[in-house]
User: What shape does this take?
Amino acid sequence: MEKDKKNKKSKKDNKMDLEKIKKAVTLLLEGIGEDPGRPGLLKTPERVAKMYEEIFSGLETKKDSEEILNPIEGESHDEMVLLKDIPFYSVCEHHLLPFFGRAHIAYIPDGRIVGLSDLAKALEYFAKRPQVQERLTSQLADMIMSAIKPKGAMVIIDAEHLCMNMRGIKKPGSRTVTSAVRGIFRSRATTREEMLALVGKKEF
Ligand code: ZN
Assistant: This one.
């Protein structure tokens, strides 16, 4: 009973444990053979904890899609809406290193539209947590589908992963492109092609 209550609370409001992060960073430094007590590193655990609070802020509050995307009803616009080249930063959950790039978000309204800044907010919400690019892409498309109920949605994310580039697995500057295609974008090739042309991609 007590446990259920706790789970419920942590689901809605997941406050970060900064002290735990600090201890972990100290251990990490020791683990790699560093001296956490040397002057340059003294404040590092605290800095990292503060930084994590910011870059993982998407975890702190579980939000329903309607809290991020506020649909505006009664709109007659039924052509493609595209927000392109939105910069974002996220963290790869496999290596805890950044991946970053640009997102392109499109949908075709069906009686409802949404503020463009809301789309950017949704991207931030999903990006600011340990992530994989594929999931980030589909979570965005799915949120748009459920909150705006458009005729279709399409998200393309083009990103550089430091876990690949820093470790020399791939050449620096190589990029990963992912897409999530829903509704009319999936069923109609010309709609998909229109989106690709607008973001300047022949294919992906
Ligand atoms: Zn990685």
Remarks:
- Residues 78 and 168 are 46 Å apart (CA to CA).
- The two ends are 50 Å apart (CA to CA).
- The chain has two domains: 2-59, 65-198.
- The chain has a mean pLDDT of 90.
